[in-house]
Amino acid sequence: EVGNNTQRNRFTYSDLCVQVPESKLRPCLLKTLESIFSLMRSYYAIMSFCPEAKNNTSQSASGTSADTGRSHSSAVVNQDDVAATKSDRMPSSVSNPDASTSGTDAPFYQLRKDATKLVAYTFERGRRNLWQLATSRLSVLLACSAVSSTSIYQFLKNYEDLTIFILAGEAFCGFEASEFRQKLKTVCLNYIVTFHRQNIYALKMVLEKESWTIMSAEASQIISLAGLTGDGAALISPTSGSSTLPKDYFRGNSIATNTGRQNNGFASWLNIGNPFSFKLENGSADSPKGNVLFNSSVGNGNNSPFDEENEDLLADFIDEDSQLPSRTLKTKIVKGNTSHWKDGDISSQTGSSLSLLRMMDKYARLMQKLEMVNVELFKGMFQLFGIFYHHIYETFGYQDRSQSGKPLPDSQSFRLKAALSKITQDSDQWIKPQNSLYPSSSSLSIGSTIAQMDVMPTAPPSSMFTSYGLKERCAAAETVSLVARVLNRSRAHLHSVLSQNNTSVVEEFFGTLVDTVPDLAEHIHRTSARMLLHINGYPDKIANAKWEVKELGTDHNGYVDLLLGEFKHYKTRLDHGGISKELQHLLLDYGIESIAEVLVEGLSRVKRCTDEGRALMSLDLQVLINGLQHIVSSNVKPRLQIVETFVKAYYLPETEYVHWARSHPEYSKSQVVGLVNLVATMKGWKRKTRLETIEKIEAAA
């Protein structure tokens, strides 16, 4: 009853649980677990009481009889033999009242012995009911909102305590607590939903503020990815209050189904005392560094309990300005993880890539701690990388073609299109701007928890309307490639964390997204080349040139000189762009290929052309090749071979165009159709022949 003398309100247990604040959740949980565990201990002591053991030990030190767990541990009934001894534990006085009358076989003693067996038998049968009643009360407490709003450190501590409680309960009952395990899984999923939503908000904020400048090596070396790469990822060990737990019991949720059938069953838990009493008594002194011992001996041999790699999980929130966990940043190089970093990796980091890697590393650690929901955590990693991937594409892979009457053919690879389609399908709610604060929140199923969360309104990223320089564009392509390299090194480790039944999720992630990062980087560089060249309007200039000439002269068309001038300016921009020589050579090659694409597109739009006009096309191409060869040192002719092949196709017989189109997939359908229409017009094809040829070409495409 809560209230003053004038008004009193009576609350049910469920009503009180709903009102539990976050600050009181852990004390309430520990008190509940302590009370239930004490009840199970008393229940088990009564169930396993034996008069013979009582008489035999009555003459020993009186202090030993106070603790039923320690005084009767040798006489505890083995739960493996419960089924075999049920008939023996039924009261024998009913069938055999004439027992021996000497010593311990006296009628009074025999009656007490039979009564004890009857009580023990009744208690054995009631264990399941007691467990179900206890877990139902605990489930109501775990349904309060404070469970999902607590810090990650507090949640992991609660998860640890609940895991211990489940193991003790399974030993007490003799069967697997599947229902309560499922309840705990649901609690974990609900928490992961909130946790994942917060990380997406943080990542989107970092991306919107990203300047795409390479960070210093010192800042990059602070980051540890031991959880992601598998080099000493920390696993929670028992706290100081539960350090005496049986070693075989503390295995998280990977407990075997026959827990309750181990030797002596619940007796081993009686010997260690109540594991929740110490935590409850020392709750005010609870601290991450004081009670959690992290085992980092896997992989690197470092047994330090306070590894730097665990500090992210101990943070209560993410700092709004830096988007880093709320802890004091130490200018200290992380130990035991330098083998996973290479000089190129460190020098290519940006602020957003560091934030993304930290988040994914945190998810990887949680996958090992919360095994029952590690698939959902991995899907969260999948989605985080997808949002990062899509943001880079939208910011640097989109090209404004408004200067041209018609857009150039889409140069994206099939793998890149498939990756973007997958991201849009899985993360559309996080990518597109939202109009309402919180859309209707439907019930979340376990299979689609990550994909169907509430979303908050997000304005279009400011970077979408910002023209980044060449250096920033190259940094974006380089940093996404870096993240992909780190993920590829973690591939085997992620496979080992997930069960064999979930390997397809890992392969889908790598096959759909990580393996297509080179396609994304290439697309960004090609887009950068087109933007710096300023040649989007040239297809129309080429198409509008005079090709219907009667005599071939020695002069080429004026667009050739304009293209050469654009390419000279392009090379100058690359020389002064602050990028490496390797990237300069790569972008020069992409620039030449962009000119080839523009030439093919422009020539495919020509409406009328004589044989002399086709010869003029070849002359223009040769002049352009010679001019480009004076600007760059590499051989440019192979990269312009696509143009020469297209020009020569003008002289093919009319029956060869369908086969030619099939054998040259590098040309788009519209380009081949434009070529056929031009040839049919200038060579007087029959209308039926032209239509049939175009129909076959479109059907083949």
Automatic annotation (TrEMBL):
Which residue range or ranges hold the Syndetin C-terminal domain? 468-698
The alphabetical list of record keywords is: Coiled coil, Protein transport, Transport
Which one of the record's GO molecular function terms can you name? SNARE binding
Keyword Zinc in the entry? The reply is no
Recorded hits in Pfam families, A to Z, give: Syndetin_C, Vps54_N
Which positions fall inside the Vacuolar protein sorting-associated protein 54 N-terminal domain? 2-49
Range of residues in the leader sequence: none
Q: Where is this region: Disordered?
A: 57-106
Question: Could you tell me where the Polar residues compositional bias lies?
Answer: 57-77, 90-104
* Classification via InterPro entries: Syndetin_C, VPS50, VPS54_N
Cite a single GO BP annotation. Answer: protein transport
The cellular component terms of Gene Ontology attached to this UniProt record, alphabetical and capped at eight, are: cytosol; EARP complex
Query: What is the protein name for this chain?
Result: Syndetin C-terminal domain-containing protein
Which organism is this entry from?
Aegilops tauschii subsp. strangulata (Goatgrass)
